[in-house]
Write a structure and sequence with these properties.
The complex is a heterodimer of chains A (278) and B (465). By secondary structure, chain A is an alpha/beta fold. Chain A has two domains: 4-82 and 241-260, ATPase, nucleotide binding domain (Nucleotidyltransferase, domain 5, 2-Layer Sandwich); 92-235, 2-Layer Sandwich (Nucleotidyltransferase, domain 5). Helices cover 39% and strands 19% of the residues of chain A. Chain A contains nine helices and ten strands. Chain A has a five-stranded mixed β-sheet. Chain A has a five-stranded mixed β-sheet with strand order 8-7-6-9-10, sandwiched between helices. In chain A, helix 4 runs parallel beside helix 6 and helix 4 (129-139) runs antiparallel to helix 7 (181-200). In chain A, 50% of the residues are buried. Chain B has 465 residues and is an alpha/beta fold. Chain B has a domain at 279-317 and 349-465: 3-Layer(aba) Sandwich (Rossmann fold), CATH 3.40.50.11900. Chain B has 18 helices and ten strands. In chain B, the strands form three sheets. Chain B has a four-stranded parallel β-sheet, with helices on both faces. In chain B, strands 6-5-7-10 form a four-stranded parallel β-sheet, with helices on both faces. Chain B has a two-stranded antiparallel ribbon with strand order 8-9. In chain B, strand 5 (284-288), helix 13 (299-306) and strand 6 form a beta-alpha-beta unit. The radius of gyration of chain B is 23 Å and the shape is globular. The two termini of chain B are 42 Å apart. The chains are: A alpha/beta (278), B alpha/beta (465). The A-B interface holds A 65, 77-81, 84-85, 111, 113-120, 122-123, 202, 204, 250, 253-254, 257 and B 394, 397-398, 401, 423-424, 426-427, 429, 431, 441, 444, 447-448, 450-452, 454-455, 458-459, 462-465.
Chain lengths: 278, 465
């Protein structure tokens, strides 16, 4: 049996999947300095869950912002390519991918799982999951409750500040003024959807549109984004894992291609050790 | 800047010896302006692409290119203290950071009565006059020196209005060119009158004619030299061009500038004959399609190179077009020739744009280079403080995608049959600034470059990896 692993170290969450024909093991955990240093531990957890030895993994691809901190990976690939590949596995007809990560957001135009163009916002937290974390905290609610709350609103509040920090102050002030919580939350999600859709529209959005990243679990945001773009926005079964799945599938492609060409896939000397970060 | 930081930064690699020679040339030019000031020569603050190069040279006035000095501060990663000073004077950080850097520097120099400590390359000489420009290229061109005058109230400003007709697809520029030419000529004669008053001497028009001859000859030579970069592999990239633009923009009308391009032309031809490219295995040919570069991060061009990508062409700082392709009426008046050259440059792409519905001169320029230089993808830079460049870049990419699809591909139709189609070129928009290093993240920038390279690979091979 062949096994492929994808390791996606994002700015907020670390994701690992091990696949053969489908996902046989996955781990999702917060990224912190420790996790980056101990990417081996996360991999070990995934291996234990799958009851596999490290040596049985045929190929490992690392992706995400922390991909260079995965010394045991055979190849590093950017999250743009991995998300394109991962999304196409769930939605072969996908043409546009929106990935909202912990600290950035991206739009990717894809064609049969291949990225053909992309845009990225890594400059401002207001277009990322961090914006929701901060405003949820300011409103004293759980981030996972935001979507359902927003869907109850019929009059979303206008959040005019485009800076996360100032928007935090704005929602607190509006709460004090008596604006209903559901309207405030809906306003927050609309402002995030506004920022992301403005960026993604640069790509000439085409259906099918798919959203990935942890924020995709927020039904209120998905609806707001769908309204802004004018297209239905689909969500994969586990949107946080799409990049890691894409990474594992790319590994599979690399090995298959090498075998077709009668070659051995290029692999790195690897061991599951801690890495040293100075 | 800390000494350790200076030591840590490696010297940027250039593909040509000519580009490598520019640093010392600029340093000498800046040192030359300080020496000229000491010798009592007249010094003028000036902007590039303002048409007064040959006029100043003909009157022995030494130009100090204030944008250039701000760029030098940025490239040496030593602009921050001048930007902070300007900010503390009440200027917003969102203004042109060239202007902010210059204003911070000028205020500091005026306050001390001498150059600020460890001023990059000796500092910027105090002007005897400031020549602003009302042209529509960018707003600091008339506002910057007005602001600087509060620190130097004794230094006069002369504004030169240099308009060009904005493109409209239903109006031909020939219908309105006489009005523009007449106005530009009047403006240039006004400049000469001002300079004569400041220097106390009359313009030598025979000398000016000779310098305009030299300027035109240099324009044509630059065009021919840069066209050599069409070769595969390309012998010179945009990283080098950000150096080799110096004689074009700061030294026009000098023999030194002409000789520089003679040398560059020879070097490129030799490299082409040896099939020597910027890199050994050229995989992707990119167009720098607009935006000023981050002067502190020119090493990013080397990073592109390390991924197999080269830039055979750029629209930024390609501030010349071949004179022999422009309409230039017979005249012995050098002022008139300058006016026609100015006009001819700005309307150069207008006719082509009119022939393609939905096009625009800037888009037409991109299309021409995409075809001439066999381009695989486009890179642009949105420098947050440069509104002039910032405004149109995304629009240009959108228009390009709408009206021009150069890459043929096969797509599977709904009926299951393969159909011929085409696809736009992948593009990358970098975001930072010209000299404000606080807007820049090397990690994020290079992550974008990595993703772009994978996209190019994907488009080129038609598969993901």
């Amino acid at each position: 049996m062949e096994y492929y692993a994808g390791v996606d170290i994002g700015s907020t969450m670390t994701k690992v999947v091990i696949m053969n024909k489908g996902i046989i093991s996955s781990i999702i955990g917060p990224t912190g300095p420790e996790q980056r240093r101990l990417a081996n531990k996360v991999m070990e957890k995934a291996l234990n869950k799958a009851d596999l030895a490290f040596e049985s993994i045929n190929y490992i691809v690392a992706t995400g912002y922390g991909r260079i901190n995965v010394p045991f990976a055979d190849k590093q690939v950017t999250e743009i390519t991995c998300h394109a590949k991962g999304v196409a596995d769930f939605f072969p007809e996908a043409k546009t991918v929106i990935d909202i990560g912990g600290q950035d957001s991206k739009g990717i135009k894809i064609d049969n799982g291949r990225p053909i163009d992309f845009v990225m916002n890594d400059k401002c937290a207001a277009g990322s999951g961090r914006y929701l974390e901060i405003t949820a905290d300011a409103l004293g609610i759980k981030i996972e409750d935001m979507g359902e709350l927003a869907l109850q609103s019929t009059n979303p509040a206008l959040i005019s500040n485009i800076c996360t920090i100032f928007a935090e102050q704005e929602v607190v002030s509006k709460l004090a003024e008596g604006v209903p919580l559901r309207d405030l939350v809906a306003g927050v999600l609309e402002s995030l959807a506004n920022r992301v859709s403005r960026m993604v529209k640069r790509l000439n959005v085409e259906e099918a549109v798919v959203i990935t990243g942890g924020v995709a679990k927020n039904a209120g945001l998905v609806k707001a984004l769908s309204d802004k773009l004018g297209y239905h926005v689909s969500v994969p079964p586990e949107p946080l894992l799409t990049g890691a799945v894409g990474a594992a599938l790319l590994g599979k492609d690399i090995v298959r291609k090498a075998i077709e060409n009668g070659e051995s896939p290029e692999r790195k000397e690897r061991s599951l050790k801690e890495i040293e970060i100075l | 800047m800390a000494e350790e930081e200076k030591k840590k930064r490696k010297k940027r690699r250039t593909a040509t010896k000519a580009a490598a020679s520019i640093g010392p040339m600029v340093k000498a030019a800046i040192g030359g302006t300080i020496k000229a000031k000491e010798e009592g020569k007249k010094i003028a603050y000036t902007f590039i692409v303002c048409l007064y190069d040959e006029i100043l040279r003909a009157m022995d006035i030494v130009p100090v290119w204030t944008e250039n000095y701000a760029g030098v501060c940025g490239a040496k990663r030593d602009a921050e203290r001048f930007l902070e000073r300007a900010e503390s004077l009440g200027f917003s950080r969102s203004l042109c950071t060239y202007a902010l850097c210059g204003l911070g520097f000028d205020q500091w120099r005026e306050e001390l009565g001498e150059m600020p400590p460890e001023a990059p390359w000796g500092g910027q000489a105090r002007p005897d006059m400031m020549l602003s420009s009302g042209q529509i290229l960018c707003d600091p061109r008339n506002k910057w020196y007005q602001a600087a005058q509060q620190f130097m109230p004794d230094v006069p400003i002369h504004n030169v209005d240099l308009p060009y007709p904005l493109y409209e697809d239903d109006i031909h520029f020939t219908d309105i060119q006489d009005y523009y030419i007449k106005h530009i000529i009047e403006e240039l004669r006004g400049l000469v009158t001002f300079l004569e008053k400041q220097t106390g001497k009359k313009m030598d028009y025979d000398r000016l004619s000779g310098l305009v001859d030299l300027g035109e000859k240099t324009w044509n030579l630059i065009h021919e030299t840069y066209e050599l970069r069409r070769a595969v592999p390309t012998p010179m990239g945009t990283g080098d061009a950000m150096n080799t633009m110096v004689p074009m923009t700061f030294m026009l009308g000098t023999q030194e500038a002409y000789d520089f391009y003679v040398g560059l032309n020879k070097e490129l031809k030799e490299k082409i004959a040896r099939k020597e490219g910027v890199i050994e295995n050229e995989k992707y040919r990119l167009l720098w399609g607009g935006g000023l570069p981050s002067w502190f991060a020119l090493a990013d061009f080397n990073y592109f190179n390390s991924k197999g990508a080269v830039f055979p062409a750029e629209t930024t700082y390609r501030m010349v077009q071949p004179i022999y392709h422009m309409y230039m009426p017979e005249t012995n008046d050098p002022i008139e020739r300058l006016a026609w050259r100015w006009f001819g440059y700005w309307v150069y792409w207008y006719d082509k744009a009119r022939k393609r519905p939905g096009s625009h001169p800037d888009v037409e320029w991109l299309i021409q280079y995409i075809e001439d230089y066999q381009i695989d993808g486009i890179v642009m830079h949105e420098a947050f403080s440069c509104r002039t460049w910032h405004l149109g870049l995304i629009w240009q990419l959108n228009q390009l995608a709408k009206i021009y699809k150069p890459i043929p591909v096969l797509v599977l139709g709904k009926d299951g049959r393969e159909n011929k189609a085409s696809r736009e070129l992948p593009s990358l928009v970098l975001e930072s600034d010209i000299i404000d290093i606080t807007s820049y993240s090397e990690v994020d920038t290079r992550n974008r470059i990595d993703a772009f390279i994978e996209t190019l690979e994907s488009v080129k091979k038609g598969k993901t990896i």
